[in-house]
């Protein structure tokens, strides 16, 4: 599948014109990763974000004790690593290939320049990021409530 077809399938770019999709594809590169290969590490400068062409990617955090918490499994046509690209920050988590995968890589500087020229693209991305924030908020709530319930002693009525 070519880059433009995958870009067109992504929620991040939904509703954009063929001309806009062509512009986005023109700044992108392709990069393959082998199963288990690290794509980026927590704390690394976010110089690009990615879109999966085939395969799956795991975004995760590792606790000081070495316990892994999976934050998201990225499927075909899903973007990842985009949040710190906009904030100019570092990646807040790790990403690795769950299986051999191909990605489209969007360099930060070229993409930000394109956003300045195409405000509708920025609006689509705000929508996606808002949905992800809501999902992560729910995850935090679920994990917090689960830990609270597990931490309470069992009480029995007679």
Describe this structure in words.
The chain is of the alpha+beta class and about 160 residues long. The chain has helices at about 5-10, 20-25, 80-85, 110-115, 120-150; strands at about 30-35, 40, 50-55, 55-60, 70-75, 80, 95, 100-105. About 20% of the residues are buried.
Quick take:
With 158 residues, the chain is α+β, with helices and mostly antiparallel strands. The chain is 41% helix and 26% strand.
What's the end-to-end separation, in Å? 65 Å
Q: Could you tell me the mean pLDDT?
A: 87
What is the assembly state of the chains in this entry?
Answer: single chain
Gross morphology: globular
Work out the number of β strands: 8
Strand content: 25-35%
List keywords for this structure.
alpha+beta; 4-stranded antiparallel sheet; 26% strand; 158 residues
Give the topology:
Layout: H1 3-9, H2 18-26, E1 29-33, E2 38-40, E3 48-54, E4 57-62, E5 68-74, E6 79-80, H3 82-87, E7 94-97, E8 101-107, H4 108-117, H5 119-151
Antiparallel strand pairs: 1-8, 2-7, 3-6, 3-8, 4-5, 4-7
Helix pairs in contact: 1-2
């Amino acid at each position: 599948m070519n880059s433009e077809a995958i870009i067109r399938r992504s929620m991040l770019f939904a509703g954009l014109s063929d001309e806009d999709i062509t512009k986005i594809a023109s700044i992108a590169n392709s990069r393959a990763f082998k199963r288990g290969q690290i794509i980026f590490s927590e704390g690394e400068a976010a110089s690009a974000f990615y879109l999966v062409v085939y395969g799956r990617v795991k975004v995760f955090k590792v606790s000081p004790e070495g316990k892994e918490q999976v934050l998201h499994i990225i499927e075909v046509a899903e973007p990842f690593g985009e949040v710190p690209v906009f904030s100019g920050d570092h990646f807040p988590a790790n990403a690795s290939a769950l299986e051999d995968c191909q990605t489209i890589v969007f360099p930060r500087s070229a993409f930000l320049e394109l956003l300045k020229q195409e405000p509708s693209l920025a609006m689509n991305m705000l929508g996606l990021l808002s949905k992800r924030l809501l999902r992560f908020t729910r995850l935090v709530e679920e994990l917090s409530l689960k830990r609270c319930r597990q931490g309470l002693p069992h009480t029995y009525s007679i």
